[in-house]
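Cross-posting from the modeling subforum.

Setting up a comparison between two proteins and wanted a second pair of eyes on the formatting. Protein 1 (sequence, then structure tokens):
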Amino acid sequence: MLEQKSFELAIPTICVAVALLSENASIVNIALGIVANYATDFFKGMGGEKRVRFAIIIKDTAAGRSKCFKYRGDVSGIKDFTKLATRINNDDSK
């Protein structure tokens, strides 16, 4: 008998405008903190592998372009993903 011991939570895409980021650069960190808390609560008490997947799109309507950051992995990796996405976004903005 095959037993599946894995759970995956798919969260909708989070869209952030560049204008909002320029006013409050930590908005992505706040949004991902909420996602991490929700995912942690969702998986509480469940055994097996716990995976999350979502995408963040940062839209710059003035420049007419967007950046998409996708994450698929363990709940604990969201913190590292936040740092990486913020660094890449800041490097590209220069």
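Protein 2 (same layout):
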Amino acid sequence: MRQSGRTILVALAVGILCEGAAARATDRYRPDVLIIKLKPQAAKTAGLAGTVTRTGVRSLDELNVRLDIRGFRRIIPAAKLARTQKDVAGLGRYYIVQLAPGTNLDSARAAYAADANVEVAEPDYIEPMDMVPNDPDYAMQWTHSTSTDMDIDTQEAWDLEV
């Protein structure tokens, strides 16, 4: 009886730890957003339908309806790409897919990844920032950090925005 009680206690502790780890893992990405990269030919057509969820690419439009998405838009608007005249890195092929609340992110990602017009489908990852510059003279620049806190708080600012 005593061994069985320990086994249950250990199983309960492992379950609680795993549940906490799973909760923290979901904090690493937005639960209702996918980032997809279309293949070049699909990207030429996408966006021509002119609505929030219709792309002009049949398989994507069917998938968007089936998943009841809330939005489908380029990360970098076409007008900005047109000004550069070149999209060497393919940045114009990246889109944000806004999923309906409660949509299973893994299933949606797998569905988009399986589409022949999609090159990449992944969650919208969130990485915490803790920025310290790699300037070898940073420690000698007293305006960034002083013991009396009479400084310009650049370290704190870098952690907020880069």
